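Z., the sequence and structure:
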Amino acid sequence: AIVGDQDGVVVVPAKAVDKVYSIAHGREVIEGLVKAELEANPGPPGKFYPFMSGKIKVDSPLGKLLATKGITPANSNQFEGSADW
């Protein structure tokens, strides 16, 4: 499959499309939440970045922010130990 957005285009093997979409969509949601948080409470973006999909620690500033928005290892594959790829 060929998948693209405003950031670019990538070719993904058909058997991996759903998994790649899940990872990318999870990142997009998190980046939106971080952006909103930084707009509401200005501060250094380094508090939340960089982050790696599947490696977010629950007790990190980003993990704590996500918890306040209902995003946890139980419902997201972005946390350490929750990656399903």
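The longest strand covers residues 2-5. The longest helix spans residues 17-40.

Let me know what you think.
H.
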